[in-house]
Design goal:
The chain is an alpha+beta fold. One of its GO terms (cellular component) is plasma membrane.
Length: 815
């Protein structure tokens, strides 16, 4: 018999209580029609674990396929395939064999109806439902199966999830179809896991396309749509990476024309300018030419090409989202998800919702009584949940701000190490761990699985948004913006706190933001990929150490899969989160680091194969689940895309020196010819050191006289107030932000309007297929009715003949 699901458990100190739960649960599973078989612990590799093997017979599968409205084939599709793309031969090196890309033929499908079994293409009842559908049905039964006795009213004792949480069972999983490194010995097994490992999970296949149809068939549509999105995102990154490299090359080629950096490095200009201390007491005076190297580095990213690249990325992100909608619509058609309404699919209310909601009311759609949460209770839970989320978001922000200042004011580490420690701490803030725990046990009670996943995704992303981006937002938009001037510095919590608002490093805040993005895109992503691959491998190696010592013939499939890592409920969430956080870094702050898309491209090429390798070799087979799109992540991507236009406009205007340089070049340059000579002297203000309060003076040093700002010098009637050039620059910055935002938004909305979400070819095919399906169903019903009428007519004719014979016989006897 085919094993559709496996449960494992061990005897422990609470054995009697857990054994009673198992007996009731397994008895109820058998009442539901499932067939069970227990393997004794003496036959297991550790001599402690029992394995309960579950088989779903045809009758159970047919019944629940009808309930879940699972679509199954009833006729081979006769719609001609799409025409070949011109020059398709150029893509041949990247193609996979046709039997891998299309593991099953195209069929017309319809929701399964148990009363119309003869309508569907059922050659063999044992193989009609694929393994992914079978394990989905069995899991559906187990999540709603109670483990209390019939004479008790303990309605909360329901479902395999609670039994796993309280330790009654240690694991629950469907089986892989074979070993990943060799084909199954059973000829009826398709060895899909082996093919996935050979053509998809191998690192040498990094340049090949993904076998999305095979992934969907083996793991289900939900995991298939994730890899489809990840692959498409990686493809689109190629164009952003090329444009980023072009902008970087422009910065390199214009390296020698950078007059500003030459003046800073000139010992007769930058070497003669002594700058004010960047902090109180502990910071000494410094000469401007000490920033020579960082000024040259800054020019590579802070040049005219950066403005163009920031606008390009605003349009790129729109093209990415719009083209993904088209790719997603095509997948919906090819994977038969067009008529899949997740609300209908989730008519089965979450067991947790049924247990916690005692009220009942009539469902207007199903006309059945269902549990519901009263409005006052719903409002109270919503307010409590919202307050909790807001509290933890604020807490994470405050902790990040405190760490930022603590690290920055520590004089024991260098600036580069400070940046590394700052980002790695803030991106792994413990606050988010506890906030996520509270988020997962949310006070709201979502009614359906779809609603639960979407709400959880939104809330947890809010925490992670603050967690990952707080340090970058601080450096880009707050650091060095509200510092005051010598003699009148601004302090974070007032002068009594002695926490003076931080100034940018001598090289400027843009190069600091660039450094942080470089740490993220090169260092942290690389560490993340190594960690993703290494941790499951080590855990599985340790967990299977006893089983490996046994002969292969006694090391059963369920034991091998039991020793693999469990793919948790939030497994796919964290895979999405990793990529969406990366998407935020390459869009929200890309104006400071045009090479970010290139590093993201390299990372994602590796990420696809690492994830594929984990799924095929290190994880147990997940329960198959349906999904027609990427869910709440699509809305999150749209919000990040819109926000990125604003953040990049502000980075160019306020974090970089682009606007001040342009104002000087066209309005304040010296001489008759527009040139950048004299910009350094023009961008600095002079201060009389004798007027600096003792609290701001360094402990020892030279006499400073310059600081970065546009203020009148001492002795002027408006000394230390902003000059007119400051207001001109501010007006230019605001004008740039307004113009850039409007231009990019207009182009974005025009592109979104111009590109339809569903390709015209797909629309036509959907309509054609619906027409043909309806026609076949109509013909089936007509033929069935004719057959019934003919059978009725034949039966009436037989009855009439028999009656006539009886009458004749009676007449003959009377005669």
């Amino acid at each position: 018999r085919r094993i559709d699901f496996v449960l494992s458990y061990v005897d422990d100190k609470d054995g009697d209580k857990k054994a009673e739960r198992r007996r009731e649960f397994e008895a109820n599973l058998e009442k539901a029609g499932l067939e069970l078989e227990t393997e004794d612990k003496s036959e297991s590799d550790d001599r402690k674990t029992y394995y309960l093997k579950i088989h779903a017979p045809w009758e159970v599968l047919a019944t629940y396929a009808d309930v879940l409205k699972i679509k199954v084939p009833f006729k081979a599709s006769d719609i001609p395939k799409a025409r070949e793309v011109p020059l398709e031969w150029l893509t041949q090196p990247f193609r996979l064999p046709d039997n891998i890309m299309r593991p099953e033929p195209d069929y017309f499908t319809a929701p399964f109806d148990k009363s119309k079994v003869d309508f569907f293409l059922i050659d063999d009842k044992d193989t009609f439902f694929p393994p992914s559908t079978r394990n989905r049905i069995v899991y559906y039964i187990m999540t709603r199966c109670p483990y209390y006795k019939e004479d008790r009213l303990e309605k909360d004792k329901t479902g395999i999830k609670r039994l796993l949480n309280n330790g009654t069972y240690t694991s629950a999983y469907p089986l892989h179809d074979c070993k990943y490194w060799k084909k199954a010995q059973d000829m009826q097994c398709e060895s899909e896991r082996y093919h996935l490992y050979k053509y998809w999970a191998g690192f040498l296949c990094f340049y090949k396309e993904q076998p999305l149809n095979l992934i969907k068939k083996y793991y289900g549509e939900k995991i298939g749509i994730y890899f489809a999105w990840l692959g498409f995102y990686t493809e689109m990154l190629f164009f952003a990476a090329v444009m980023g490299v072009i902008c970087f090359v422009y910065g390199v080629l214009s390296y020698e024309d950078n007059i500003t950096s030459k003046e800073i490095c000139d010992p007769d200009i930058g070497g003669m300018i002594v700058m004010c201390p960047l902090c109180d007491k502990k910071c000494s005076y410094w000469k401007l030419n000490s920033t020579c190297l960082s000024s040259w580095q800054s020019h590579l990213f802070d040049n005219e090409g950066t403005v163009f690249f920031a606008m390009f990325m605003g349009i790129w992100v729109t093209l990415f989202l719009e083209f993904w909608k088209r790719r997603q619509a095509r997948l919906e058609y090819e994977w038969d998800l067009v008529d899949f309404e997740e609300e209908q699919q989730q008519l089965q209310i979450r067991p947790e919702y049924e247990l916690k909601c005692t009220g009942r009311r009539l469902n207007r759609i199903t006309q059945e009584m269902e549990p519901y949460l009263p409005f006052p209770s719903k409002c109270a839970r919503f307010c409590l949940s919202g307050a909790t989320v807001l509290f933890w978001v604020i807490m994470c922000s405050l902790i990040s701000s405190y760490v930022i200042n603590w690290i920055k004011y520590s004089q024991m580490v260098t600036a580069k190490i400070q940046n590394c420690v700052l980002f790695f701490f803030c991106s792994d803030c413990l606050t988010v761990h506890y906030a996520s725990r509270i988020c997962s046990s949310t006070f709201c009670i979502p009614k359906t699985h779809l609603e639960y996943e979407n709400k959880l995704t939104m809330k947890m992303f809010m925490f992670q948004f603050v967690n990952y981006y707080s340090s970058c937002f601080y450096v880009a938009f707050f650091k060095g913006k509200f510092v005051g001037y010598p003699g009148n510095y601004t302090y974070m919590f007032g002068k009594w706190s002695k926490l003076r608002n931080e100034e940018c490093a001598p090289g400027g805040c843009l190069i600091e933001l660039t450094t942080q993005l470089l740490i993220v895109m090169a260092g942290k992503q690389m560490v993340g990929n190594v960690q993703e691959a290494l941790l499951p491998l080590l855990r599985n190696w340790w967990g299977s150490r006893k089983g490996r010592s046994h002969p292969e013939s006694t090391y059963s499939r369920w034991e091998q899969d039991h020793d693999l890592q469990n793919f948790s409920q939030f497994g796919l969430f964290y895979e999405y989160l990793e990529m969406v956080i990366q998407f935020g870094f390459i869009t929200l702050f890309v104006a400071s680091f045009p090479l970010a898309p290139l590093l993201a491209l390299f990372n994602n090429i590796l990420e696809v194969r690492v994830d594929a390798w984990k799924f095929t070799t290190q994880f147990r087979r997940p329960v198959a689940a349906k999904a027609r799109n990427i869910g709440a992540w699509e809305e999150i991507l749209n919000v990040v895309a819109i926000l990125s236009v604003v953040t990049n406009a502000f980075i160019v205007a306020f974090t970089s020196d682009m606007i001040p340089r342009l104002v000087y070049l066209y309005a304040y340059h010296t001489g008759s010819k527009a040139t950048m000579r004299g910009y350094i002297d023009n961008s600095l203000s002079f201060y009389n050191i004798s007027q600096i309060p003792d609290a701001n003076l360094p402990e020892a040093g030279e006499n400073p006289s310059w600081y970065r700002d546009y203020r009148y010098p001492p002795g002027h009637e408006k000394q230390y107030t902003h000059t007119m050039q400051f207001w001109h620059i501010l007006a230019a910055k605001l004008a740039f932000i307004i113009i850039m935002e409007h231009v990019v938004f207009v182009v974005k909305f025009f592109v979104a309007w111009l590109i339809p979400d569903v390709p015209a070819e797909v629309k036509a095919r959907i309509k054609r297929e619906r027409f043909l399906v309806q026609e076949y169903l109509h013909n089936y019903e007509v033929e069935k009715l004719k057959m019934q009428l003919s059978q009725s007519f034949f039966m009436c004719l037989l009855v009439t003949v028999e009656l006539m014979k009886a009458v004749k016989s009676s007449v003959y006897s009377a005669t």
